[in-house]
Amino acid sequence: MSVTAAQGFEAAGVAVGLKSTGAKDVAVVVNRGPRKVGAAVFTSNRAKANPIIWSEQAIADGVVEAVVLNSGGANCFTGSFGFQTTHQTAEKAAGLLGVSAGDVIVCSTGLIGSGDEVFRGKVLDGVEQGVAALSAAGGEDASLAIMTTDSRPKLAVVSRDGWTVGGMAKGAGMLAPGLATMLVVVTTDAEIEPAEADAALRRATRLTFDRLDSDGCMSTNDQVTLLASGASGLRPGLDDFALALTEVCQDLAQQLQADAEGASHDIVIQVVGAASEDDAVTVGRSVARNNLFKAAIFGNDPNWGRVLAAIGTTRAAFDPYDVDVSFNGVRVCTAGGPDRPREEVDLTPRRTEILIDLRVGAATATILTNDLTHDYVHENSAYSS
Amino acid sequence: MSVTAAQGFEAAGVAVGLKSTGAKDVAVVVNRGPRKVGAAVFTSNRAKANPIIWSEQAIADGVVEAVVLNSGGANCFTGSFGFQTTHQTAEKAAGLLGVSAGDVIVCSTGLIGSGDEVFRGKVLDGVEQGVAALSAAGGEDASLAIMTTDSRPKLAVVSRDGWTVGGMAKGAGMLAPGLATMLVVVTTDAEIEPAEADAALRRATRLTFDRLDSDGCMSTNDQVTLLASGASGLRPGLDDFALALTEVCQDLAQQLQADAEGASHDIVIQVVGAASEDDAVTVGRSVARNNLFKAAIFGNDPNWGRVLAAIGTTRAAFDPYDVDVSFNGVRVCTAGGPDRPREEVDLTPRRTEILIDLRVGAATATILTNDLTHDYVHENSAYSS
Hints:
Chain A folds into 2 domains: about 1-260, L-amino peptidase D-ALA esterase/amidase (4-Layer Sandwich); about 265-380, ArgJ beta chain, C-terminal domain (Ubiquitin-like (UB roll), Roll). Chain A is built from 10 helices and 15 strands. The first copy, chain A, has helices at about 50-60, 80-95, 115-130, 140-145, 195-205, 240-260, 275-290, 290-300, 305-310, 375-380; strands at about 10-15, 25-30, 35-40, 65-70, 105-110, 155-160, 165-170, 185-190, 225-230, 265-275, 325, 330-335, 335-340, 350-355, 365-370. In chain A, the strands form 3 sheets. A 6-stranded mixed β-sheet of chain A has the order 13-12-11-14-10-15. Chain A has a 5-stranded mixed β-sheet with strand order 3-9-8-7-6, sandwiched between helices.
């Protein structure tokens, strides 16, 4: 399953002591070909971890042989020593696999500022053990090795006529937009060119991971990598491929939302009637990031005033006195004034649907977020990450 | 004290049942002259409450006779009925005081969407009782009547050679920028012209209330009103006056920060070495709004990685690998890498100082914020506001 569901891929997940629990913490995913096509999108945070700086260069030629991922340390803001660690990680994997280091992607996740000699030694050890353990059944082990505060691994597979897209993701906090917002590897045995892979990946992530905004905090380390082996010998149409890829990404994005740190509600904010898609995204995101709104949902309070107050901080085209807002199908606000009594809204289910009609156009967008809970505060105050 | 510290002012605070507790809930502040100069700044939220829409018009001529303020209802998103309520409130006060309704400012605070016939009746009753109770010793009562979730009234006075500036404020949540971020009335007996009052108020609020960003949530109702009676017969220099006004505003802003809902730390984020003041403000605000940073402070964790991750989301001029960050005087990050061990930082005091040196210029700015706590989530999930 996951990254080994498609033909042509091997993976492994091993434990080398980066996690104090003894759980798996280094994953390796290898493309056995025949094609070695790769594409990736990265966090748009300007504060970039060393693996991002490395991988942005490595992906430039559209060729990827392997991805090495570690949890238990972000290797971010660790100076030139940290960059050398990433470089050595790629070199080590390349040497063992007989490929070029420039075709090895590196991903790290964990505490920012951590990445000393001990860290380096463990990661290099993990590469050696991981390459030795590679198998066509290793997808699940790999998905376990990239978990940090995740409570469960995230896997998804979509199969079409003879070709497959499968992926794994990790992420439970720092989920916010910027193209990529977590560590994700997606593989396919479809036969596609590097430019097609890049285009399809950007299409898919724009509508999925980039619309997930759990806590408004953008990570320094996040990337989504797509590997294509061509092992199925089949060449799907670009639209068909992009749709399957989007389906896998959406599935993974929803799993990330469902596992967000401390959350008690998965909130789907659907904005309709917007003048443009950008406006719809801006409005949805502004509501998703409003702490008062998020705390109200935690308290099962359909506080539409906080929704309008959040929309009012944007530059989107709308008239505050001509906006409709529904909570779980009950329209509590019509034309910027009270409609149905808030008592009619049931916010006890985990899934919460907010529908905002800006009534100025035909554009729409959906943003996924979570509520602000005691447990979110607890998890992010009690532990460094 | 407070709004009646300066000569020429009377005030009152009365209870008319808008608050279920029976506490005072309507305040009236009247300028007895001889001058009736006024200036005001308003929330920049496009979702504006009826009192904001009214008062923006009323302030246009620079003449203000009186301010009527109520807690217990925001009169926001209450339709044309709500606007008529505000209009009738001004008319009622004007009739009783023998002035023009267009010279009466109205301010409301409380739950958005509330403002029915009962609300209107109580507010009008409060105007009648408030005008009857006006006194030169009424400043404290007025400051009590505007409280919502505030745990204490906020008062400040600065006296110079023969002239005085005094004020009151309310606000404990929804504290975020937009010129005004709460209800504030400041009075002075200095002799100043309307244009000078406006200029001084904008200078003062830009550096005080506008740099307070407790929870990133901008209110629909907030305004800061300045009234000048000229009763001292003294005409200070504009710089002297603006300085005294800034002092009062800063005092009130710090009181708002100290009383922020559920907060356990008052965080002062000082950004230095910025290329421009705008950059410094942008960086400070981005850190102030980062939930992971705020939760870390609650947990007494000097998590400088989260500071850099927040800075990285801005467009400010900086190099992520040449930034220094100190927590309470201990430099934990130098040139984008670890410096002193985090164990050296003591974050147990309520006052927390974050110093960020961007090392690209000479501009600075200071942003005031609070941490993200269990109590913040509790107060904003358990009660509608």
